Amino acid sequence: MVHLLCCTLRGQRSGTKPRQVHFPPLGTKARKDANAAPIREAWFDTYWPQASGDERSKHTRIVHYTSKGPETHMTRLPKECFGYLSPASFLVMGRYRKGEDTAYECLTIDSTSDDAELLLAQLDITPDFLIGEFETAEIRAREQDRVLDFVEELIAAWHAGTIVDFARARAAMPKTEELAGLARGRYLQMHGLERLDPFVIKRPGDALREISRIIEWDMFREFQRRERAVELVRIVMGDDPRDMTVAEVIRQLVNELPRVDALMLSASQQRKSRAGYSYEHHIEAMLVGGGIPFEKQVVIEAKKRPDFILPSLRFIRSGDAAAASGLILSAKTTLRERWKQVEREKGEHRLYLTTVDENIAGNAIEDMASFGVHLVIPESLMDARETEYSGHKNVLTFEQFCSGVIRPAMNQWA
Fold first, then answer.
1. What are the structural domain ranges in the chain?
2. Which CATH class is domain 3-138?
3. Which intervals hold domain Restriction endonuclease type II EcoRII C-terminal (predicted)?
4. What SS3 string covers 125-140?
5. Mean pLDDT throughout 122-138?
6. pTM of the model
């Protein structure tokens, strides 16, 4: 049995600060000064398959300097595994028995990689995750519990010859806009709100992050789990019920392997393609909820179609002195290098780019500043230790954007 220890890292750092989760017990280090604050530590062996040469095997130290508060540091790590990580990347440690000893195998996973997406999905890691312990058997059991009732319904539908109708009624993925609306409805119900008004919600950026990255993500995974399960059964078993031996099922599964591969690949692509469009729907709902005037997806020049123009294209092109108060607002769930596409849309207008992406490095933020791009982020990301947003003049929270940029401008937009 493998236990996984996982924690979020700060970018460009070679040390981590895990809480004490099933590491060897700490002992008090002998010190020359008997009156000095105690230092508690433990040593254990770690293996790093991503490292090279002798760096793969390390004698790692867990140390708690009691004079510095509750933090426990892990040191003596291979620096090459940490040197080029994006902010909010991950350290994953597998703990297992090796004879009479406990072994720890360690990986770093860059937050911008496909491996990070797989990690988040497999362990059900939420955006506010910092550190946790996972047992693989328990994860599999939870996944089985989630689908147990649905599987029974699916089997009954196949035996009854109604699997096609069952797929439409019980396993169809909602359209992006519909799913986004369902997520917002659940958020409003949970918080006792009537609408997404950024001037009323205390931390509107965090609300957007909760809706898009937690509520909608959970709903999407449930719909996708059902949709893919039905599709897999139809590929292997067909739509019409019949008696099939185990050998026939295995033979059909092997014969249809290319279709099964395509099904799994489409699931990954579906997750990526829907996220950005969904975030736009949530931004639009918040603009409507706050009574903020805007136009959506208006062509301003050839091949330039920003997500939102506030208050309108006609206003920002009016030539009046007040036209300078207008702005372009773009929405990207994740950025990577795509912010450069947005920069080309700004022209002479103010450009604000809103995102819930915690993985942006400080040098990229400075590059955006040099092009006049302002970042609008959730409040919780501004001062989070795992991000690099703090201290940049071109970064503001969604609450600051609404209260300090939008509200004063609306007097001129009326």
1. 3-138, 161-283, 295-413
2. mainly beta
3. 256-401
4. CCCCCCEEEEEHHHHH
5. 81
6. 0.80
